Sequence to fold (308 residues):
Amino acid sequence: MMTHAKTPAIVRTIAELRQRIKAYRRAASAEATVGFVPTMGYLHGGHASLLRRSVHENGLTVLSIFVNPLQFGPNEDLARYPRDEERDVTLAASNGVDIVFLPSVEEMYPVYPLLTTVSVSSVSEHLCGASRPGHFDGVATVVAKLFNIVQPDRAYFGLKDAQQVAVIAQMAADLSIPVEIVPCPIVREQDGLALSSRNVYLSAGEREQSLALSRSLAKAERWVAAGATAQELAKKLAEDIRQAPSADIDYVEIVTYPGMQPIIGSGALREYADSVLIALAVRFGRTRLIDNLIVKPKEAGDLLCSAK
Ligand code: PAF
Fold:
């Protein structure tokens, strides 16, 4: 698919963004759609794949870049989160984005913290919701606000953050927000590492060891096929990841997808008919990485997104 470079409009206020989208809708045909890719910037190939898909499927594509303080815990990496506006705008331009929305914290949150919080209960409870308290409230709140500002027809999210996709899809359904949530496959480096803005923190040694995530996920399918229960699979994955000496496991969880509920019981996972999320969060030094695989165990080979 060819995407033509164009100079996107750089917009920093909610009022101007609304006005531009309104003008586009007024001028365009009734079927013209608005695609939206919300990000925190420091864009990589995973974001580029979302942008290309949106540009392909919609008449207007809006990219937002906003490092959202609401979704960072007190001891997390908000202050050092990587930023490079110029590089991001260049990547947006080369992928055909129409509008880059770059609001300040004051523009998004004139009152901080907001008096309103959007909280999606059970889907946010486990995995990253348990190890990063308040994180998904921050994500759901900012995404609800961005959806209200942009009013997109479609919004694109990467499945590396599979729980985030589940939380946002549930929020949009519960609040009757008229947007189609489009989950997109994980994009990986050639050696298997899932692309993430946080990969830049890894030292050379940590980068090497971080391959433990995708390598263990690649073995998971075999263990499922051999009859492992959810508990056995989690144990095998953890043992495998610990072969990397600096791997510090936050969680290895096998849950229903998109319900995000633990799978308990002594049955072989391969008998499970619904989608299952095999999710990992592991620290290498100060960097916490996540990765996952979504499988429908009973439909052999039916991978929604596959680890190499
Ligand atoms: O995935 C992200 O980059 C963020 O969590 C999101 C969805 C842009 C909300 O701040």
User: Anything to note?
Assistant: The first strand starts at residue 9 and ends at 11. The longest helix spans residues 135-150. The chain has two domains: 9-184, 197-307. Residues 9-184 form a domain with the Rossmann fold fold (CATH 3.40.50.620).
